[in-house]
User: Fold this.
Amino acid sequence: GSYEMTEMTLTGLDKLVQLLESPVFSALRLELVQPDTNPELFRSLAGILMLLPQSEAFTLLRNRLECVGVVRLPRGPVNRAVTGDDKTLKEMLQHFNQVQTQHALKNLKLSETQSQNQQ
Assistant:
């Protein structure tokens, strides 16, 4: 998509990776040992890895994914079992897009206000 990666987003992803390394998420990390039972987890973490610049968080997450011996996406079809009906899923996606648009507009107005104050 057209989402712009901001410093705040990258900082949030960095914090997320740090949290995943904490003892609280040890059960989640153990699920990585069986990537075929939860391919969405691996795909999500691999996606986060692709978004991160090469930093400490990038190295931690890359090492975690390599540590479990998974350097590829799980093979075979992914079971797309989704709870709820398609209407609920569409509503959630629509809400996500609305929030994303509102956030972008807020940032635009904030930068315009800051620009006017500097003049």
